[in-house]
Task: inverse folding
């Protein structure tokens, strides 16, 4: 390992003795954590059906840990305090320290090699337990570097085998995401190794200064001042962002500790358009922009306001509006205006800023950050250069989101979710041509949950696939009932969100279930939104598999998003559904009639069925019929209802038609 400066042999021995002493203490502190994480890994392996492999691995890890503990507790000649030691004995002591350090890093390498076999417990990081084992690997390697500041070879020898093993397994597994993750693990290893080297250099330098101060009384004050300066520099580095000079997340948390008792206001600021600047001009230019933004923020905030860069292009402010005599709304407008001013080399308006404000009482900084982040998300949903204050409405939304994420699993298990069906009428609204499945959840506290919030809660709770399977099961039950009643020509449609289409194997799940039940594939229709078309690379294979198997595809909400002929061709759509915003009130608005007529013409030209959603009045129905629209859907014709009510309605229509 590199030594900062050349030192005398005696002093070099003293530095190595300090290193060995620090290594012994740090290893003895780290081994219990290592053992507990190893036990957790073995338990997870046992839970996943790999009990024997987990036991063998844990036994090997325990043996390596016991060896390391024994080395740390064994006596060493070089650690015996001796004020005046003969040269021969000093040389022997130095050799004993070198031998013990060598044994320690060899033991660390042995322990790291055992951890490198961790992929055997999770099928090479491809099983359901991958996230757990990757987290454990990252945690234990980071902990090793954190504790192993004295002698870099020990943490480097420990972390290198498991991280290289993880990178190799991820790269072997293939796929863009895993390949990128493997590269990230390698970069993480290099960063940790560099940090280890820097930490050891700092440790050796500190040790050298200590012994020089002891040997040279005249230099004591200078060495003491240097140590204080180094401590202050480390404190600044630990609490301040190196790029902008603002507080970092840790420093912001410390500064906020004494400010939460008053009428505190937290503002989260996120730059709009910064990603495109990084992508186009590079990270060097992006860093320069962040520095300039930080300077403008520092110039614009009131006295006593704490500013921080939390990471990336996200900043935070914390202050007392009453004490500063500056309402947060006015401050937000000022900051948005300052960031909107031109930057050197950029067009005006390329960069903007959104602001989320929270001034409601909160129990902790974490609660304030969560609420401000909710307000920031709401501001970004409206557009660039906006701010939003966290209010009671957002508080209810946040509580509803948390409760939904918490309760959805139980709702799925207990069957309190339901799937209702809304009829799609053919023959200009005279007969039922299809049904659309709509998931419904009446939460015991928040009442009916909007479908979009339900889908988001499922994603956040890791229940996206479970929710899809639940809806599919209800749809299949309806299809079986329709066939049993001689209504096999009535198609049933179910919505699949872009998140579901991208994250899970929708094609395999749907096709497998329908084939298992012996249901005709063309009887099912999958409705996807135009947002799915924007991510066609991630979904095209699944969409093609569904279409080629015979399942019909419908493009929902057509006409209000990114509608394009290319999306119709890429998605292999069989039907387009005109968004309700174009249909409701159609009779009274000429522009809507023109747009609807254009979509109907497009459908006829491409041979696609066209469904008009949102038919709410008899007048709109008559207008659509006059325009030649065959398929309609809306409250005027039929509201969503449970399966039993829908079947009764269809039976009544059959009876009246007869």
Result:
């Amino acid at each position: 390992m590199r030594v900062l400066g050349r030192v005398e042999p005696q002093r070099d021995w003293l530095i190595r003795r300090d290193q060995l002493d620090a290594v012994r203490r740090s290893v003895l502190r780290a081994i219990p954590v290592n053992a507990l994480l190893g036990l957790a890994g073995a338990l997870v392996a046992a839970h996943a059906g790999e009990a024997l492999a987990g036991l063998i691995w844990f036994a090997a890890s325990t043996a390596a840990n016991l060896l390391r503990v024994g080395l740390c507790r064994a006596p060493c000649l070089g650690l015996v305090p001796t004020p005046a030691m003969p040269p021969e004995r000093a040389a022997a002591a130095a050799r004993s320290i070198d031998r013990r350090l060598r044994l320690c890093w060899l033991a660390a390498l042995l322990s790291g090699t055992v951890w490198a076999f961790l992929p055997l417990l999770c099928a090479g990081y491809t099983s359901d337990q991958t996230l757990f084992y990757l987290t454990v690997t990252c945690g234990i390697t980071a902990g090793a570097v954190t504790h192993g500041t004295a002698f870099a070879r020990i943490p480097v020898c420990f972390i290198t085998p498991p991280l290289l093993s993880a990178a190799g397994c991820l790269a072997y597994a293939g796929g863009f995401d895993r390949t990128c993750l493997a590269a990230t693990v390698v970069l993480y290893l290099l960063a940790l190794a560099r940090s280890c080297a820097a930490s050891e250099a700092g440790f050796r330098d500190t040790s050298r200064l200590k012994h020089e101060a002891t040997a040279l009384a005249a230099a004591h004050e200078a060495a003491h001042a240097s140590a204080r300066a180094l401590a202050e520099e480390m404190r600044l580095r630990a609490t301040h962002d190196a790029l902008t000079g603002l507080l970092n997340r840790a420093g912001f948390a410390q500064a906020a500790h004494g400010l939460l008792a008053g009428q505190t206001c937290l503002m989260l600021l996120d730059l709009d358009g910064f990603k495109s600047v990084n992508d186009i001009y590079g990270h060097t230019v992006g860093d320069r922009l962040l520095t300039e933004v930080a300077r403008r923020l520092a110039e614009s905030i009131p006295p006593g306001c704490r500013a921080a860069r939390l990471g990336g292009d996200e900043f935070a402010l914390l202050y007392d509006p009453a004490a500063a005599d500056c309402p947060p709304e006015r401050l937000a407008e000022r900051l948005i205006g300052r960031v909107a001013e031109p930057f050197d080399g950029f067009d005006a308006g390329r960069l903007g800023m959104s602001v989320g404000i929270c001034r409601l009482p909160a129990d902790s900084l974490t609660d304030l950050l969560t609420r401000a982040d909710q307000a920031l998300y709401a501001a970004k949903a409206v557009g660039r250069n906006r701010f939003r204050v966290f209010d009671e409405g957002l508080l209810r939304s946040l509580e509803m989101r948390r409760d939904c994420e918490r309760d959805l699993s139980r709702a799925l298990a207990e069957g309190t979710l339901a799937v209702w069906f809304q009829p799609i009428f053919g023959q200009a609204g005279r007969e039922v041509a299809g049904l659309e499945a709509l998931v419904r959840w009446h939460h015991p506290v928040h009442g009916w949950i909007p479908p979009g919030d339900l889908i988001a809660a499922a994603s956040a709770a890791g229940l996206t696939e479970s929710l899809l399977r639940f809806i599919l099961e209800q749809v299949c039950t309806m299809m079986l009932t329709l066939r049993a009643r001689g209504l096999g020509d009535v198609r049933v449609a179910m919505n699949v969100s872009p998140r579901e289409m991208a994250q899970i194997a929708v094609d395999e799940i749907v096709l497998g279930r329908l084939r298992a039940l012996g249901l005709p594939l063309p009887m099912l229709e999958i409705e996807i939104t135009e947002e799915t078309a924007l991510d066609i690379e991630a979904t095209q294979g699944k969409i093609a598999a569904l279409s080629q198997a015979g399942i019909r595809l419908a493009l929902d909400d057509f006409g209000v998003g990114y509608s394009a002929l290319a999306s119709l061709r890429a998605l292999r759509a069989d039907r387009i559904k005109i968004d309700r915003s174009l249909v409701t009130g159609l009779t009274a608005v000429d522009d809507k009639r023109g747009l609807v007529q254009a979509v109907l013409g497009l459908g006829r030209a491409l041979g696609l069925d066209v469904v008009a959603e949102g038919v709410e009045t008899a007048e709109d129905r008559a207008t659509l019929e006059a325009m030649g629209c065959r398929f309609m859907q809306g409250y005027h014709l039929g509201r969503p209802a449970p399966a039993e009510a829908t079947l009764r309605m269809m039976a009544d229509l059959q009876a009246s038609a007869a």
